[in-house]
Amino acid sequence: MPTPRSFLLLLLLATPFLLLPLAASAAVPTSNPDIDLEYLIKNAGLDDSTPSTPTDDPEDSAPDFPGLDADYDEDEDLFGDDDGSDESSQGPEVDEAHVLLLTAANFTAVLAARRHVMVEFYAPWCGHCRALAPHYAAAAAALAEQGVDVALAKVDATEEHDLAQAHDVQGYPTLLFFIDGVPRDYSGERTKDAIVAWISKKLGPAVQNLTAVDEAEKVVTGDDVAVLAFLDHLSGAHSDELAAASRLEDTISFYQTTSPDVAKLFHIDLEAKRPSVVLLKKEEEKLTVFDGEFRASAIAEFVSANKIPLITTLTQETAPAIFDNPIKKQILLFAVAKESSKFLPIIKETAKSFKGKLLFVFVERDNEEVGEPVANYFGITGHETTVLAYTGNEDAKKFFFSGEISLDTIKEFAQDFLEDKLTPSYKSDPVPESNDEDVKVVVGKSLDQIVLDESKDVLLEVYAPWCGHCQSLEPIYNKLAKYLRGIDSLVIAKMDGTNNEHPRAKPDGFPTILFYPAGKKSFEPITFEGDRTVVEMYKFLKKHAAIPFKLKRPDSSAAQTDDSSSTAEGEKSSSSNPKDEL
Fold first, then answer.
1. In this predicted model, what pLDDT tens digit does every residue of 281-313 receive, in sequence order?
2. Are 497 and 462 in contact (CB under 8 A)?
3. All domains of the chain in start order, with CATH
4. I want to staple 391 with a disulfide (CB 3.0 to 4.6 A). Which of 95, 110, 397, 494 is the partner?
């Protein structure tokens, strides 16, 4: 298919009649037959030869509820302001004597010298990194005291850009565990005990033998969660299956015993047929007995479904366990602290019927550090008790419960959620009464009518009011819409992504610019990833528009007036920061 340039050139060569008026005019150089593009470059006051390149700044990442995602930039700004401007927010000084500081100069050498290294990629301004720091330092000290063959280290990713990029760091903090230089993600909680347990599990035997009662008592009182198998022998087929199950579960310690006295401490029925497996937890539901076939996959599935509490309170420490959980579908209870005792028993009892299927989370609504930002993310206002279902960040659908909160109604709501019987809810501003500007305002409720109109090619910017890049883009985007004004088949639109949601307009950071071709609205939109200039966006539209279009230019006298004002504007912008044209 000919491009606009080649098609126009073909017309010029094949039609002598068209050559006459064009030959009389020296305004269109033969080296650039795309008249619209020439006009746009000239009148937009832009020099397309030196386009600015958009930058990636963590402050403009899409607000996300990780694991409920990463996603976004995984989880920055969820729990509060991470700009690091307030020195008082740094907290007490942390003793990091056992934490290595890595840079590009020593990174490779340290990984070559130490077989096991955990590395934290952090940013000094990141609130989550500051919260992790004392736990990380304490874990390093504890492991050093125990003589464990591991080094804990950290990298300032804001200084060591190449190192962070080489290890695909998408958010802060990112924790990687290197064995012989090969990294794997750390998936545990961001606490000292969790880090120590996770590393100990990785470096120790898959299953530990418990032969003495005093050893068993330490496990019962010390481990938050533990798995014990009561076997006839400490080696053989059953022990091998248990070890294989242990390797499938990163965060839980597995034990085995042949001692009836040890088994009794774990509340195992001594009359039960061996092999027997139990999971012990420090919570209301203390003991869970495995009743499946003694195979590694079945045991691992049993542990995965039962290791978590019936309901998890969301905090900065528990966030990773929630966000990284293989169970993606969640039921969330939002309630203020003084009201929570009325509803938590109902949620806990409901959770017993959905083990391994749904994750139940309690969000303390009046907790400013967690409750406020998470409530804002879901569009919850006020402190009224709220129950909602959430599919996780894969498709980010949420479903609000309505009605009286009781055991029967919440169970029915959870079952309907599992069976996809609920109708999703999306945030939306009111539909504007007037929408006559060159850039059309889209809200959640109007996106179907404006953006998904099959008769229109639509370019949609999803922005955030606080986003610096969005603010820099606004005059450029407005200018693009101005030059494309009057083309009936083309709509230039914008949507505030912080107040509006729609399953067909998911931002990947701010701003996100999406194009929806006419007649193809059932397909995924095309993301604009070029330089954020009028000319580059125009080229993008010319390339992807399903309905061909031409600029509607004013008459020559108006064009000259517009040309002089645009030139002045171009001269003014040339002395400003290039980022203003991003």
1. 987 778 899 999 999 989 988 998 888 889 999
2. yes
3. 100-201 (3.40.30.10), 205-307 (3.40.30.10), 312-419 (3.40.30.10), 440-544 (3.40.30.10)
4. 397
